[in-house]
Amino acid sequence: MGYRFARQGGSKLYNADADQFLNLPSYTMGSTAKLQERRWTALKSLQPGQVLLFTIHGVPDIAHPDYTTTEADLTAFLRFIKEQHFRVIALKDFDKH
Known about the structure:
Blueprint: E1 7-10, E2 24-28, H1 33-45, E3 54-55, H2 71-83
Parallel strand pairs: 1-2, 2-3
C-alpha cells in the first residue's frame, strides 16, 4: 500500500539499530496522569542524538477522553520543545533525518 512508516505505542525512545520503520515506538499524548508523567519524563531526560516520537490523537479528542490533549497541554508541550531548541520533523520526513 506504499506505507513507509507506522508507529506503535510502547513509550520508549527510537533505537535506529533495533526499531523498524513500520514499527516505530512512540509516546502518546493524553489526559491521564500516567501518560502525562511519562511524556514529561521522556522530554526532560532527552539527550542529544536521541529520537522521541509522539502521537497526538486530538486537541481535543472528544471520542477518546483518555487520549485527548487539551490546548493548554499542547501549548506547554510546544513551548518546552521550543525553549529546548529540539528539532521537530513530521513522520513523513523521518527517513530524511
